[in-house]
């Protein structure tokens, strides 16, 4: 009797282990932009939610062309007076939970652009000294060493971001990510992405009606996803989405549609990594990440 009873539990254990492995293999991460709304809660709160693998601090709105770079964190704190150095402890608390924290460059406003290879190299040096492993005198976020740099370049001027990518990736420890728009190729980030140096690419499937999910029809989204993942070499691709209907002009996907239809349609195509959300503010309002995290 004893030996007959031994097998069912062993088989059940094997099935559970196999299911667990499959679950781990298909489970995606969630990345979120934080920084552009003073009412979205602290960086530490965002990390303590347990919902995110990546936090993208938004944005370094001015850089390049020899300009003094400007960090803009909306109502959170004033970088120009040294008022954001206190974020160092939040950043370190996030990192101690395994969350990667990156600085995002650009955004839909701002004054940025690179005038030459030398200009790109000097921006890379500035980033290294002031946000990464270097030791600049005026680190706006204090002594915490960020995990990398995100490019959310949206002004249509693509010049020399390939040079910037090369300069940043001269240090292998720096994560490099980008947030292109879903129409391929991206007007601002196309040449940079062709370097093949990016770890993660979070593609904005919002404010771009031609490649969005609309009323149960995922064909345009899947087609754009296939084009992106077969045309660009990158570590992982993420589906970039608004975290609520108010977060973007178009492109919001209901949580049930996302986990039931859209994710199953794309996660076998190319190197799927998870989803990116704009932004923490809208995610707090709508609990989008909380609703979908088990199914992305
Ligand atoms: C978010 O949604 C999840 C899933 O429905 C739920 O378990 C969680 O309590 C919600 N969180 C908040 C803050 O409402």
Automatic annotation (TrEMBL):
EC number(s) given by UniProt: 3.2.1.14
Catalysed reactions listed for this entry: Random endo-hydrolysis of N-acetyl-beta-D-glucosaminide (1->4)-beta-linkages in chitin and chitodextrins
Q: Which GO terms describe its molecular function?
A: endochitinase activity
Coiled-coil segments on the chain, per record: none
Which compartments does it reside in?
Secreted
- Signal peptide (UniProt feature, chain positions): 1-27
**Where in this chain does the record put each GH18 domain?**
28-296
Per its UniProt entry, which superkingdom is the organism in? Eukaryota
GO cellular component terms, semicolon-separated: extracellular region
Keywords for this protein: Carbohydrate metabolism, Chitin degradation, Disulfide bond, Glycosidase, Hydrolase, Polysaccharide degradation, Secreted, Signal
Which GO terms fall under biological process for this protein?
chitin catabolic process; polysaccharide catabolic process
Enumerate the InterPro entries for this protein.
Cts1-like, GH, Glyco_hydro18_cat, Glyco_hydro_18_chit_AS, Glycosyl_Hydrlase18_Chitinase
Task: State the family it belongs to.
Answer: Belongs to the glycosyl hydrolase 18 family. Chitinase class II subfamily.
Q: What is the name of the protein in this document?
A: chitinase
């Amino acid at each position: 009797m004893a030996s007959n009873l031994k097998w069912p539990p062993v088989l059940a254990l094997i099935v559970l282990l196999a299911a667990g492995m499959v679950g781990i293999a298909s489970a995606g991460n969630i990345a979120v932009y934080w920084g552009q709304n003073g009412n979205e809660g602290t960086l530490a709160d965002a990390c303590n939610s347990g919902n995110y693998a990546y936090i993208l601090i938004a944005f370094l709105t001015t850089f390049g062309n020899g300009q003094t770079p400007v960090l803009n964190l909306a109502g959170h704190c004033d970088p120009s007076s040294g008022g954001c150095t206190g974020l160092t402890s939040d950043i370190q608390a996030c990192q101690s939970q395994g969350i990667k924290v990156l600085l995002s460059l650009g955004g839909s406003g701002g004054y940025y652009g690179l005038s030459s290879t030398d200009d790109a190299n000097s921006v890379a040096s500035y980033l290294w000294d002031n946000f990464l492993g270097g030791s600049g005198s005026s680190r706006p976020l204090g002594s915490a060493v960020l995990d990398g740099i995100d490019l959310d370049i949206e002004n249509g001027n693509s010049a020399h971001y390939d040079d910037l990518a090369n300069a940043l990736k001269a240090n292998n420890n720096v994560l490099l990510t980008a947030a292109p728009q879903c129409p391929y190729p991206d007007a601002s980030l196309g040449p940079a992405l062709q370097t093949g140096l990016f770890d993660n690419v979070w593609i904005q499937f919002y404010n771009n009606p031609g490649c969005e999910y609309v009323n149960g029809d995922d064909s345009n989204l899947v087609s754009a996803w296939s084009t992106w993942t077969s045309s660009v070499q990158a570590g992982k691709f993420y589906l970039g989405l608004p975290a609520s209907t108010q977060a973007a002009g178009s492109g919001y996907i209901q949580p049930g549609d996302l986990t039931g239809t859209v994710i199953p349609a794309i996660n076998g195509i190319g190197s799927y990594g998870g989803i990116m959300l704009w932004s923490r503010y809208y995610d707090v309002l709508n609990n989008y990440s909380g609703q979908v995290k088990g199914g992305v």
